[in-house]
Amino acid sequence: MNNAIGSRFLNGSCVCRRVLKIGSVRLLVPQQHDAAHLQRNVMTAHSTFPPVKELSSKIRCSQWTEIQRQLSGRAGGTMNVFDRTMKRRQKKWAASLQDSDKYDYLRDEVGSRVADRVYDIARTFPLALDIGCGKSHIAEHLHKEVVEQLFLTDISEKSLRNTRESEIPTRCVMADEEFLPFKENTFDLVVSSLSLHWINDLPGALRQINQVLKPDGVFIGAMVGGETLYELRCSLQLAELEREGGFSPHVSPYTAVTDLGNLLGQAGFSMLTVDIDEIQVHYPGILEVMSDLQGMGESNCAWNRKSMLHRDTILAAAAIYQEMYGSENRSVPATFEILYMIGWKPHDSQAKPAKRGSANVSFGDLSKIGQPSTKDKS
C-alpha cells in the first residue's frame, strides 16, 4: 500500500499534491485537509532557510514525509524489517549525549572516503543533497569550489541541530530517507553515508534518489555490508545456544554486495561502480563494542530483535569473543564492511557501450600482443 500511494504522489495523480518552494529547491507537500482527517505539522516555508543553529522549532519534515514515516513505523507493512520509529529514537538519544563526538570516529572516516569519491569527479556541483547526514560528516570534508550549495536531511532533529560548521552554504530539512520530499530533477549530486542500511524499502529509496537527480547527475553512497560485525554476531549466537538453547538476531540484517549492483541498475542508474572497504576497530571487550554501537545510534532496530540479553549470556559471549577473535594484547576486533556505490542518472551525453558484434579485434588476439611477427622471425 505504501508503494502504491507513493507512486501516485510522485507521478502527480494524487489530488493532495502541491509544491512548496524554499530558495531554489521545490519540495512536495500535500494539501492541508480537515483536522479530523490529517493532523500533522507542515514544514515552515521561507525564501531562504536560516542556519540550523538558529532554527529552534522551524526544522520540520514535510506533511507527506510525516505520513510515510508513520506508515513505515508500523509492523506488518511491505518489506517492513526495521522499526523506523525506534531508529529515530536511537539517533535522538545518541545525538543528545554530552560526549557524542567520541562515537563519531567511524562516521567521520567513512564520510571522508565518500568525499574523496566526490573529488574524483572533475566537475562542480551547484546543488547537492546529503541523505541521512547525521552531524554532516561528509560536508566537513568538502569545499565550496566543488559543492556550491548543500541540503542536509535526517530523520533526527537533534542531529540536524548538531551539524558541524562548513564553508559550504547548507540548508536543513528533517525528512525520512525512505520518502524524499523533493521535486524531480532537482540536484546535481546526491550523497549518503552510513544511513541506507536502515531502509525498509531500499529499491524504492534508490528510485527516489534517481528521480531527484538531474539528468547526468551522480549518486555517491556508502552503506554497511552483510559481513559487518560478524564477530559480535557469532559470539552472541554461540552464547545463547549454550545458555538458553536457542538464539535471536542481535545484529541487524545488511545488504550483500552481490545484490547492490542489481539494485542500482533496477533503480535506473547507469555507469555503476561498487567497491568494498573493511574497517577494523579494536576494543577492550564485547561490552565496549556494544556501548559504542549504542553511542553511534547503530543499535539493532529490527522488529524481531530481542528486547534484552541475560547477564549469563553476555558473560559467555564475552568469553567466546575473546577466545575466538582476541589478539595477544587482549583486545577484540570489530569488522565493519563498507559498501561504496556510484551511479549516474542517464543522459544523452554519457558514453554508451558499442553495439554487439561491432568489435574489430578478437579477445583471442590479446595473447599475441608483444610476440614477434612472422616477418620479425624471418
Structural commentary:
Residues 129-220 form the Methyltransferase type domain. One of its GO terms (biological process) is methylation. Residues 350-378 are annotated as: Disordered. InterPro entries: Malonyl-ACP_OMT, Methyltransf_11, SAM-dependent_MTases_sf. GO terms for molecular function: oxidoreductase activity; S-adenosylmethionine-dependent methyltransferase activity. With 378 residues, the protein is an alpha/beta fold. It has a single domain, classed as Vaccinia Virus protein VP39 (Rossmann fold, 3-Layer(aba) Sandwich), CATH 3.40.50. It is 31% helix and 19% strand. The chain contains 11 helices and 9 strands. It has helices at residues 2-10, 63-72, 84-96, 105-119, 157-161, 202-212, 230-244, 257-266, 286-296, 311-325, 374-377, and strands at 17-22, 25-30, 128-131, 150-154, 170-174, 187-193, 213-224, 270-283, 332-344. The strands form 2 sheets. The chain has a 7-stranded mixed sheet with strand order 5-4-3-6-7-9-8, sandwiched between helices. Helix 6 (202-212) links the parallel strand 6 and strand 7 (213-224). Helix 7 (230-244) packs across helix 10. The longest helix has 15 residues, at 105-119. The protein is globular and about 75 Å long. The termini are far apart. The model is unreliable at 1-24 and 29-77 (pLDDT under 50).
